[in-house]
Structure formats: C-alpha cells, structure tokens
Amino acid sequence: MSRRVRRRTNLSDGDDKCPIILPSVSASPEDDAPVTSSSVHWTSLPDDTVVQLFSCLSYPDRASLSSTCRSWHHLSASPCLWTSLDLRAHRCGPETAVALANRCVALRRLRFRGADSAASVIHLHARDLREISGDGCRDITDATLSVLAARHEALESLQIGPDPCERITSDAVRHVALCCSGLRRLRLSGVREIDGNAVNALARHCTGLEEIAFIDCGAIDETALGNVTSIRFLSLAGTRSLKWSSAAVSWSKLPNLVGLDVSRTDASPGAVSRLLSSSKSLKALCALNCAALEEEWNHNASAFSNKKDKLLVALFTDVFKGIASIFADITASNERAVFREWRLDDQGQGFG
C-alpha cells in the first residue's frame, strides 16, 4: 500500500478533511452542462465495494487497511476473502496461525512452505479445507502429515513436494487414506517406500481417488496400484525399483486410466509396448528420459508401432505434434505453439 493511501486511511472516522471526490454523471450524453464533483466520505462506501477492494490487495496491505476503522476491520474478515490462502512468502508459525484462525472458518485452499508451517496449519481450525499444497517440506514427518489428515477430513487434494519427503513412511499414507475418504488427488515426492498395505488402503477407503503422483520415490508396490480402479492419472516419474512386468499386467487392467507418466524411470520396452497395446482406456503415456526405451528405438524404430491411436510422449517421438493432436484447433502450421495456446486457453483468451 502506498504511503499516501496509508496516511489517508489512518485518519479517524470523524475527520471530514479526507473525502473521496467522485465526478457526477451527466443526465444525457448531449448535455453540455459542466461536470461537477461531489464529496463522498470513505466510511460511507458500500460494504460490497470495500470487500472488493480488499480482494485486490496483498495480505500486508489488507492488514494495514483493516486497521483503519472498526467497520473495515470487520469487513476484512469476511469469509469470501479467506477461501484461499497462500502463505509461501510468509513464515507461518503457531502464533501466526492462531491469529488467522478466526478468519479461516471458510478456508478451502491453502498453500505453504516448510515443515514448520505444515505443523502450524492445524491451528487455523479450517475444518472444511479441501486443498493443501506444501513445498519445501523436506523435514515433514509422519506425525505432522497424519495430524493434517485427521484435522482436515474433507480434503480432496493433498500435494507435498517437490522436495523429497524422506521422513514420510507408508504409515502416514495409510492414515491419510483412513481419514480423508473424499480424497481425489494425492501427490507425494521422495518417499522412500510406499508398500502394498498403504496403496490398498487408498484403494479401499478413497473410492473417488483420480490422480496419484508418487514422484522420485524409492519403492512402490506396483501390483497394489492395480487395485486403485478409480485412478485416471498416474505419475511415477523418477521412481525406481519397479517390477515392470508386473506393473504392465496390473496397470493395463485399470478401467479408468487415461494418462500415465513413467519419465526418468528404468521402464522396459516390453512393459511400455504391453501398456500401449493392452490398455483399453489409456490415451497418453509419457516416457521422457527413459534410457532403455531410447536404446530400443535406436535399434528398432518400429518398436512401439502398436500404439493403437495412443499418444506416446518420448524424446524419440514428435512431442509437439503428438500433444497438438489432442487439440482440434491446433493445425500443423502452429504445432510448436501448443504450449502457448494452452496457456492462453487457461486464461480464457485462447481456443476453447
């Protein structure tokens, strides 16, 4: 907030020397009468206007403006202003969380940075929280993740990464499954092992789970993943020690699997070929930086010709052409602009 705005707003409610000057509107465009001005005191602004003003401010500016008067302090706590909270640029300790608690009753989406912030989130008392996203949480523990799940049973999305969570074990994953039955998206990075019991708990309790991303993990029970029949998008990028023959058999039977990412893994050519040929629902398989697949392609360019209209994204395929084929409005002349067009579409400015 600028120094001038802060100085104007810190004046008392009874000070009549700080009006907002609003030009009056002519009765008709043809009216040549001079435009006059009328004074409107800032405390007489409609509540909706003030709330809209608060929604355009950063958290520090919002706090400064809320200290102007009692009325604006009350409006600054309107639930509609606190449905989403991004604390990544701020240190969120227990004291900060307690101070924000009375404003976070309607909080739905939360982003934070660091394991200390993750431990403080429980003090927000945001029982209806639906999305949690934390990064820089290298030191997050089973206890912290389990408490997050227990205190926020309405969670639909839980994403912790991309820093490795080496202190997280299968116990915490099972606890998440037991507490958050409405979970639809789960993303964890750098977990050393996610055993079959944890994966089966997700399959049994989270029946609407559509997205799973276990990135750069040490070991995962690939057979148990075949029991998560609700899954649509599965990413195991950077995960090693997978038994690919078992994985191909289990995953090809998943009835709803649309997208699979095995980039930066030791995926075998036989497993990828089987997934492309056997899976009835699979539409796209991403296999970037997979040495075994690239070596197989160099020896036999037709190794993965059994794609059956499925999209294989790899370094030896035309990535831009493949992705552009998903979008009907992308022509051959602008295939390499697909990512720019995709971004514009997300902003409501591109193709629809």
Automatic annotation (TrEMBL):
Domain F-box residues, every copy: 39-85
UniProt organism field: Dioscorea zingiberensis
Protein's recorded name: F-box domain-containing protein
Family matches, as PROSITE patterns: FBOX
InterPro entries: F-box_dom, Leu-rich_rpt_Cys-con_subtyp, LRR_dom_sf
SUPFAM superfamilies cross-referenced by the UniProt entry: RNI-like
